[in-house]
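Justification of resources, computational component.

The compute hours requested in this renewal are based largely on the per-chain cost of generating structure records like the one below. Each record pairs the submitted sequence with a full structure-token output. That output is archived, and it is also reused by downstream analysis tasks.
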Amino acid sequence: MALTLTCPICGKRNGYEFRYGGEEKGPRPEEAGMTPESWCDYVHMNECKTGVQEEWWFHRDGCGSWFKTFRDTTTNLEQEG
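The structure output for this chain reads:
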């Protein structure tokens, strides 16, 4: 499957130009009362759902920007949010 992503600055590009930044997880948890286990869960435990999910991507071979997009994990196609 070919992956193409639409950078908000550079437009549609080949997926090889980007680095995956992970699933969108919402706001970072408060540090007060944070345990190593709860931090590990926040960082590493992903939903890995089948279908459309919101993700972070970095345009490493282009403009160097971070952006979020929606991608269908079954087809690798970008989706409308």
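The CA atoms of residues 2 and 76 lie 7 Å apart. The chain has one helix and six strands.
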